[in-house]
Design goal:
The chain is an alpha+beta fold. The protein is 34% helix and 24% strand. It has one domain. The longest helix has 18 residues.
């Protein structure tokens, strides 16, 4: 999974490479469930997260990578998450 963030203020875009399997890491979901506000993000069990990561891996093997998020604002800022 690659996360791109580009802004007019930054001279270099931010590019983060995160393994897709990170979606299934238990400690990630413990942090998300601990720090996320309940009205913003529903709690996701660790087992559900592991199943989700497995399904995403199967999809990518079969169909190739895809953009999960691709947002561009009017002032040129851009956020893109590619799996």
């Amino acid at each position: 999974m690659r996360i791109y963030v580009k802004s007019e203020d930054m001279k270099l875009p931010i590019i983060l490479a995160v393994p897709t399997s990170a979606i299934g890491w238990r400690w990630i979901w413990r942090l998300v469930n601990k720090h996320a506000r309940p009205e913003d993000t529903p709690a996701i069990s660790e087992e559900t997260a592991e199943k989700l990561a497995g399904e995403i891996k199967k999809y990518v093997r079969k169909n190739g990578h895809f953009d999960l998020v691709n947002i561009e604002s009017a002032d040129g800022e851009r956020v893109r998450i590619r799996i």
